[in-house]
Design goal:
This protein is mainly beta. Helix content is 0%, strand content 50%. It is built from no helices and 24 strands. Strand 23 (281-287) and strand 24 (293-299) form a beta hairpin.
Length: 301
């Protein structure tokens, strides 16, 4: 496997990175208050810093690319309570298309909805609320709020696929569901029904014993069961499954890393889970035939 080093020139810790839809560019978020956009060259082509985006007044926790259907759009969230929507214009110049500055505390996680839902961004905030911002036809934004989603603070957010379980994408039925995690050690599933966001399920709270650092719903369609991964400060990654809507979610500890787990991320096909734990421990996991999960790759720092 070829490895490649990309120089980012951040002045402080990097908290998150995201590759765009085409795999051509990398965005990074740092405690130095900036977001950087870098080209990912081929095996022989050098990577190049394309832009340094300044506008936050605190550590930047997360970055997320929107679907290219909506143009080159990037979102970032920060300890400063701001969420910034960045848009690339002509000549590779980035500008702040919109700034959400009315959050009262740290915005810890952001996630763009599946493109079928529209240009729609969910945010998990330390004030305990989840905010869902949707662009209007006139270019303005509407905000829906899930009040006290996690009363002591929401830390993580992820969208379900836009197609209902077992249905083909051509069915036309668009699903709006979110999974969230919080400082309360709880994972919750939310669904947009009858014009508002409502609690679908609070998953069994005895699986995690500390802050839920990340949640991830695989972006795959037509699976036989719904699946969610959650990562916790307590060192455990839990895989949650539900065969059909209305059933109870079942949780299984995939692995106890004995050190805080920061990120979980699914492959596009939903069968490989990437886990970032501890100082620089990145591993890939796959479900075996017996339902247990096996480590298939360890990424050396």
């Amino acid at each position: 496997m070829l490895s490649k080093k990309i120089e980012l020139d951040h002045k402080d810790m990097i908290h998150d990175s995201a590759i765009d839809y085409y795999g051509k560019r990398l965005a990074t978020a740092s405690s130095d208050y900036t977001v950087k956009v870098v080209s990912i060259g081929g095996a022989s082509a050098p990577s190049k810093l394309l832009a340094t985006l300044s506008g936050h007044y605190g550590p930047v926790w997360r970055v997320a690319w929107a679907h290219p259907k909506y143009g080159a759009i990037l979102a970032s969230c920060s300890y400063d309570g701001r969420v910034i929507i960045w848009k690339e214009g002509t000549g590779g110049h980035w500008s702040q298309a919109h700034v959400f500055a009315d959050h009262k505390s740290s915005v810890n996680s952001i996630a763009w909805a599946p493109y079928e839902v529209g240009l729609c961004l969910a945010c998990a905030c330390s004030d305990g609320n989840i905010y869902i911002m949707t662009i209007r036809a006139d270019g303005g934004w509407d905000t829906a709020t899930i009040e006290r989603a996690h009363p002591v603070g929401a830390t993580a957010i992820s969208w379900a696929p836009a197609t209902a379980l077992g249905l083909l994408a051509s069915s036309g039925e668009v699903v709006c569901k979110l999974v969230s995690g919080g400082f309360d050690s709880v994972v919750k599933v939310w669904e947009f029904t009858n014009g508002s966001w409502n609690l679908d399920s609070a998953l069994p709270s005895d699986m995690h014993t500390d802050c839920v650092r990340d949640v991830a719903w695989p972006p795959v369609l037509g699976l036989a069961k719904s699946t969610i991964a959650s990562a916790c400060q307590d060192g455990k990654v839990v895989i949650w499954t539900r065969v059909k809507d209305g059933d109870k979610w079942q949780g299984m500890v995939m692995h106890d890393f004995k050190t805080p787990v920061w990120r979980v991320s699914w492959s596009l096909t939903g069968n490989i889970l990437s886990v970032a734990a501890g100082e620089s421990n990145i591993t890939l996991w796959k479900e075996a035939s017996g339902g247990q999960w096996e480590e298939v790759l360890k990424v050396e720092p």
